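Here comes just one.
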Amino acid sequence: MSGSNGYSNGSNGSHGSNGFAMELRSVTKRYGSVTAVNAVDLQIRDGEFLTLLGPSGCGKTTILRLLSGFEVPDEGQVVLAGGDVSHVPPHKRDVNQVFQSYALFPHLTVEGNVAFGLRMRGVDSSEIKTRVKDALDLVALDGLGSRRTSELSGGQRQRVALARALVCRPKVLLLDEPLSALDAKLREMMQIELKRIQQRLGITFVFVTHDQEEALTMSDRIAVVNKGRIEQIDAADEIYEHPATAFAADFVGAANLVRGEVLAVRNNGQCEARIGEGAVVLFRGEGIAADCADVLLSIRPEKIHLSDSSEGLMGAFPGAIEDVIFRGAFAELRILLEGGSALRASVANASAHKRSWRKGDRVWCSVHHDDIVVVDRH
């Protein structure tokens, strides 16, 4: 079914019957002695916004290049719409890519850049005119078609690159850190715009970034990539609230990763652990064996509640505020516990009716057992 803009909804295209737009099946890619992608399995759903998130050198861009056809796997299969395209070149795949550098042609106008792919495919000139206009309308560049790209702002050039990729109506659009060159305000605006366009068209987007906030803002699902492997793939809120590994906890948002000595495993699924020397916390410990000696726990800074008294608090433990860092809407506190270990806590900036914490204050800390996540155990 086509909308008024002439774009078909990607979820209704001729994709595989399993509901996946693309797949990587046990894919490995090596560069000499370096394994950039290591036996990765990835199922990309029809019509979703999937983000590959990880640090520089983790393999996320190589995964994107395998999906696009610019790289060929050493092992495994790349599957598009149910068919093996592992050795199909990029121009013969129903996939398009927006590059980090935009890769626009400076000698062409905006319209010329957007129309380039259609002309290469031999599309009729009257249809090209209609589709280019629709694409420029979609990215809010109507009226700018006659300009040279050198006359545009960074945000406008990014929109031209996006329109050029979308005008060919690909089944899957790949985006390799396309917002990294934009300033913070424009980047935030374009995050919202990209998500709006993706939802409107229903095309599958695969987005690469190292920016955790960008991933959390835009994604239906996030694949956390580390050392050539996918450590966790899930909805953004699920990864944030229930990270599966220490790396996922630390990379997706801020996290306190603290080693805990297991003191007791209860029948109701709760466990007790000592962190530092004097602090004992309760946490959900489903699957923790009775002989488990210690665990690695993830505690988000905003989950730590502070009080100047332990009265009425379950499992509260004492600390002292060692440092206060102003972050605008919130303050980040470094809290020193008995024995020398430390936690980061974040609190909303004080209003006229709220306590303001200062360096040197003694505090009582408490964390709800549902907000402490086990990311490793021994």
